[in-house]
Specification:
By secondary structure, this protein is an alpha+beta fold. It is 24% helix and 39% strand. It has helices at 76-90, 118-132, 163-175, 186-189; strands at 2-5, 30-36, 40-49, 52-62, 96-101, 106-114, 140-150, 153-162, 179-185. Helix 1 (76-90) crosses helix 3 (163-175).
Length: 192
């Protein structure tokens, strides 16, 4: 995947601000997932055992009025506290988590780009993105993935997230004493 903060590349919402590492090479180790929902915070640790995944630890902590209708964090202190409680209750030792975002600060758009070669693709995707993004392009982190290529036509999936929206999630997770290993889109996370 190519990504951009402005016009640089690297991976979905990659290396934004805090130098997040988006390589999802777990090998034989475990992975911690964190879900920040409208009514609860959930944390789970899974590990790979031979050819299957095993749920090792899990906790759910309810929260009230901490997420707005647009899925923005309305009360980061309450969410951070719930994350700390869930992490403590689950007895997970790793402080690196994989999480996902959704809401009005996130835009996902399919588009077809016609370019002569792949070197021109990123510039063209980001130029086209300005037509679809209802925010100032300087206020978003952009990324895209080529879904299919036929001749000079590239079917791409464009993802854009408002920087302040992403920052809010990262800062809330860090305020709980954890570190974001992966930040994904909720709709993609369900399939990954």
């Amino acid at each position: 995947m190519a990504a951009a903060q402005g016009r640089a590349g690297g991976g979905f919402l990659s290396r934004f601000a805090s130098g997040l590492n988006f390589s999802f090479n777990l090998g034989g180790s475990s992975c911690v997932g964190l879900s920040i929902g409208a009514t609860s915070v959930k944390i789970a640790e899974v590990s790979r055992k031979r050819s299957s995944w095993v749920l090792e630890r899990f906790a759910i902590v309810p929260v009230q009025s901490a997420i707005s209708e647009t899925r923005e964090i309305a009360n980061s202190e309450a969410i951070s506290s719930a994350i700390r409680d869930a992490w403590s209750q689950s007895k997970i030792s790793s402080k690196e988590v994989c999480s996902a975002i959704t809401g009005s600060g996130l835009i996902i758009k399919n588009m077809t780009i016609m370019v002569g070669n792949q070197k021109e693709l990123q510039d063209q995707v980001f130029w086209e993105a300005e037509q679809y993004i209802p925010f100032d392009i300087g206020d978003v982190v952009l990324d895209y993935q080529v879904i299919k290529k036929v001749g000079n036509d590239y079917d791409c999936m464009l993802v854009a997230v408002k920087k302040e929206f992403l920052d809010q999630y990262i800062q809330t997770i860090e305020a709980a004493g954890l570190k974001s290993r992966i930040i994904d889109s909720e709709s993609f996370a369900l399939q990954n």
